[in-house]
Automatic annotation (TrEMBL):
It holds the Pfam family TP_methylase. Residues 3-220 form the Tetrapyrrole methylase domain. It comes from Lentzea fradiae. Pathway: Cofactor biosynthesis; adenosylcobalamin biosynthesis. Gene3D superfamilies: Cobalt-precorrin-4 Transmethylase, Domain 1 (3.40.1010.10), Methyltransferase, Cobalt-precorrin-4 Transmethylase, Domain 2 (3.30.950.10). This is Precorrin-6A synthase (Deacetylating). One of its GO terms (molecular function) is precorrin-6A synthase (deacetylating) activity. Keywords: Cobalamin biosynthesis, Methyltransferase, S-adenosyl-L-methionine, Transferase. CDD domains: Precorrin-6A-synthase. GO terms for biological process: cobalamin biosynthetic process; methylation.
């Protein structure tokens, strides 16, 4: 039986890699990589550097081109569904490179359970009749890297936290929580919240370019937007995450 490892590699710092992940990397015959184009080459390079540091046995490295998501589509959920199916098609062709009884691996940014489609894609391929075993190795999430960078707890004592997207936050503050961790926000949705809310913001967490800003939204929102735009223009891409805490 073919085996697929889905390995969380952490959010950008090669030292986020767990001992469990390192042990798993050393059993892999074929690494599958979805290439997002030259803009995010840095993210592919980090994966290559991880392998160079930790794996000495021979392995194969198979790349597929990550399809673009239709960002103009009105129906967001349908567009993501189409995109996942297109990614599954690419992964199906990658899987053809894996021999019987070989071990393949996807190196997943952060942790595979958080806003990542690899597990859903593998379910899709299993539904299409592909046969393989799956094992998941957890990783350090960008949310954990954010709270560590700011040296704060994710939750207030005994209180719930919601993890959501910038798109959802733009629709309104979630009910029943005072603490909201926001990911996938291309539009600075924090600008729409109560200015007395506290924000812990971080970009390129764990990486040499890490930027951290915190403060009252009313005081730091403009600074974060300016820093974000400058960094994005300079590097060609940005990944940022933030925690909002209501007073
Ligand atoms: C598709 S999700 C993947 C999340 C990942 N699975 C995790 O566990 O963190 C991508 C989002 O994660 C966040 N993110 C990932 N890595 C980050 C980093 N190094 N610094 C800041 N945000 C990051 C950003 O909000 C980005 O838009």
């Amino acid at each position: 039986m073919r085996k697929i490892l889905v390995i969380g590699i952490g959010a950008g710092n090669p030292d986020h890699l767990t001992v469990q992940a390192v042990k798993a990397l050393r059993t892999v015959d074929v690494f599958f990589v979805l290439d997002k184009g030259s803009v995010k080459q840095e993210l592919v390079d980090l994966r290559a550097a991880i392998l160079a540091e930790h794996v000495t046995r021979p392995y194969r490295w198979v790349e597929g081109r990550d399809p673009e998501r239709d960002r103009s589509a009105g129906d967001y959920v349908a567009a993501v569904g189409d995109w996942r199916r297109a990614r599954a098609d690419v992964c199906l062709s990658l899987l053809a490179e894996l021999g019987d009884d070989e071990v393949g691996a996807f190196l997943v940014w952060g942790d595979p359970s958080l806003y990542d489609s690899t597990l859903a894609i593998l379910d899709d391929l299993a539904d299409r009749g592909e046969e393989f075993d799956v094992e998941v190795i957890p990783g350090v999430t960008s949310v954990a890297a954010l709270t560590a960078g700011h040296r704060v707890a994710l939750n207030q004592v005994g209180k719930p936290v919601q993890v959501t997207t910038g798109r959802r936050l733009a629709e309104g503050w979630p009910a029943g929580v005072d603490d909201v961790a926001v990911m996938l926000d291309a539009k600075c949705s924090f600008e729409g919240v109560d200015p007395d809310t506290w924000i812990y913001w971080g970009a390129y967490l764990g990486m040499p370019d890490e930027i951290l800003v915190s403060g009252r939204v009313g005081d730091v929102a403009a600074e974060i937007r300016a820093v974000r735009e400058e960094a994005r223009a300079r590097k060609g891409w940005i990944m940022d995450t933030y925690l909002l805490r209501r007073p």
